[in-house]
Design brief:
The complex is a heterodimer of chains A (186) and B (371). Chain A is mainly alpha-helical. Chain A contains ten helices and three strands. Chain A has one domain: Potassium Channel Kv1.1, Chain A (2-Layer Sandwich). Chain A has a three-stranded mixed beta sheet with strand order 2-1-3. The radius of gyration of chain A is 20 Å and the shape is elongated. The relative contact order of chain A is 0.11. Chain B has a domain of 137 residues. In chain B, helix 7 links the parallel strand 16 and strand 17. Classes of the chains: A mainly alpha (186), B alpha/beta (371). The interface between A and B is large, with 44 and 52 residues. Chain B: This is F-box domain-containing protein. Chain B: InterPro entries: F-box-like_dom_sf, F-box_AtFBL13-like, F-box_dom, F-box_SCFL_complex_component.
Chain lengths: 186, 371
């Protein structure tokens, strides 16, 4: 429902004059620019927080050569949605830190956010979150990948993720015997 | 086979769509993915491909739960698996460790061993939920108090605590404590300097003595007492919200409404010269909800009544209290006394959560709204 909102806002705010901005401009590997709230970026990404604190943010677009435009758009979108989802009371509470808090089940909007992603977009986002040190987004995306594995047989998992079985039959048999305790109800 | 080395692949080097994206992820990310799976399934990923052979040993979370990930696992079925798992995975750090088991013959020695493994692996969030063989069965969890500088959150269910287990002086980082369906009959105290959030639900306390809750840094308290003596709250100056519900309790005096019938041997009474049971702790809260679930309703709230005597203002004034919700069946003399008492504080509005519609203006200017 608000999927495009983040993007639209980003394009609009880009036109706003520089100087004392409360946003930062990020540049994807393919040269596209994205605007994100400085507050949200600093709160959700340890890497961006470090860059903001260290003054290494480029007003003309901080280069993130490792992240493609689609993944970066999702990152920015996530930051905006996250900022909107937190009750102001919770923000005031200084104990909230999204980079150190223990894992909590993804919230409804977070589930929807990752559910709509294609397989490749999900993995791109995992890599982007990892690169930017976004603990919460990493948890939410990794949780989604685990959901795609849950309850599936090894064959089904290989199929979902295109994993090539490079064991020999003998090796597999050996593993199953060694780890018989883990295959107790097979 | 050697353990897989971390693949720090850049997206440029990642296979095109249709390739194995999971294999290109750094191992640390796959460890995180595995942390969300039930442990049985996480271990079994070792057969996927060579790269996955040892990944399960480093999963950052361990979930000993039923195969669906939600229901408890049957203890008898899973015991050998978990014993083997904790030996073979080694001491790789665990952020989250969840044990959710059911069964009629749960051996507490195994549970203690598993918990020790978690402590050894610097677990930060520990959940131990025991679903006994029949509805109200709880498991005596004779365990020395935990010692860990890493533990930040502890959730326990279905346990009977021994005397000093809930003394967290050796867990200096613990902030969240959630105890549900537990018995505190043998516990001597709940004590933690660092605790910020405490939830106690559906729990029974000692029938003859009050256990103190010492948590001077608590910010939120949710307390449900379903039997025994209401615990004694020590000072909690940082408390922001408190939700206290006393139900199914015999912790009140049958002969007197104000909590002091004059009989010194009466265990339900709180004589005027003793410390208040709840008020020391909750008087600083900004949001407070007090409730009682017995048929006699408000009578149970005389637990506060050692301080509720409108003729004597208590020494513990609640200057931060902003909202008081009084829930009662009907507004009678006792409720009016409470309202009059509350009006002596700087409280501007009191809402009554009953079905009556009323508007009372007491002489002191307290505005009272019913719904």
């Amino acid at each position: 429902m608000e999927v495009d909102k983040g993007k639209g806002e980003a394009e609009e705010t880009r036109k706003v004059a520089e100087a004392d901005r409360d946003t930062v401009t990020l540049k994807s590997s393919d040269g596209k620019l994205f605007e994100v709230s400085k507050e949200a970026a600093a709160r959700l990404s340890t890497v961006l927080a470090g860059m903001i604190a260290g003054g290494s943010i480029d007003d003309n677009g901080t280069d993130l050569k490792q992240i493609g435009s689609e993944a970066l758009e999702n990152v920015v979108d996530y930051c905006n949605k996250h900022a909107n989802s937190i009750p102001s009371a919770a923000l005031i509470s200084s104990s909230i830190s999204f980079n150190t808090a223990p894992f909590k089940e993804p919230e409804e909007w977070e589930r929807k956010f990752v559910d709509r992603l294609s397989h490749d977009a999900l993995f791109d986002l995992v890599e982007a979150a990892n690169f930017l040190g976004m603990e919460r987004l990493l948890d939410v995306t990794c949780h989604k990948i685990s959901e795609m594995m849950k309850g599936k047989s090894p064959d089904q998992i290989r199929e979902v993720f295109n994993i090539k079985n490079d064991y020999t039959k003998e090796e597999l048999e050996e593993i199953r015997q060694e780890l018989a305790w883990a295959f107790y109800d097979d | 086979m050697p353990e897989g080395k971390s693949h720090k692949a850049s997206p440029a080097a990642a296979p095109l769509s249709g390739g194995d994206r999971s294999g290109a992820l750094p191992d640390e990310i796959l460890h995180r993915v595995l942390s969300f799976l039930p442990a049985q399934q996480a271990v079994r990923t070792c057969v996927l491909a060579r790269h996955w052979l040892h990944l399960w040993k480093h999963a950052t979370g361990l979930r000993v739960v039923g195969a669906d990930g939600k229901e408890p696992a049957l203890f008898e079925e899973i015991r050998e698996f978990v014993d083997s798992l904790i030996i073979l995975r080694g001491s790789s750090p665990i952020e989250r460790f969840e044990v959710k088991v059911a069964g009629a013959a749960i051996d507490v020695r195994n549970l203690r061993l598993w918990v020790r493994h978690g402590m050894m692996c610097n677990v930060q969030v520990l959940r131990l939920k025991v679903h006994g063989g029949y509805a109200s069965q709880m498991l005596p969890f004779k365990n020395p108090s935990l010692a860990s500088s890493h533990l930040t959150k502890l959730e326990l269910r279905g346990l009977v605590f021994n005397n000093d287990f809930l003394d967290f002086s050796r867990c200096p980082a613990i902030q969240h404590l959630i105890l549900k369906d537990c018995s505190f009959r043998n516990a001597e105290r709940i004590s933690s300097q660092s605790l910020k959030h405490l939830t106690i639900k559906r729990s029974e306390f000692n029938l003859s003595s009050r256990i103190p809750i010492h948590a001077p840094n608590l910010a939120s308290l949710e307390l449900q007492v379903e039997g025994g003596r209401t615990p004694m709250l020590e000072r909690m100056p940082l408390l922001v919200s408190a939700d206290v519900l006393i139900s199914g309790s015999c912790d009140y005096c049958l002969r007197s409404d104000n909590g002091d019938c004059g009989d010194e041997s009466c265990k339900g009474c709180i004589p005027n010269d003793t410390l208040s049971v709840l008020l020391h702790g909750i008087s600083e809260a900004e949001t407070l909800s007090l409730g009682s679930g017995t048929i006699t309703g408000f009578k149970v709230n005389v637990k506060m009544s050692g301080r509720f005597n409108p003729k004597k203002l208590p020494s513990t004034m609640p200057p931060h209290l902003k909202i008081v919700q009084v829930r009662c069946g009907k507004v009678d003399k006792r409720v009016l006394e409470v309202l009059e008492y509350l009006s002596k504080f700087n409280i501007s509005m009191v809402s009554l959560g009953n079905t009556l519609t009323l508007s009372i203006f007491l002489s002191s200017g307290l505005r009272c709204c019913g719904n």
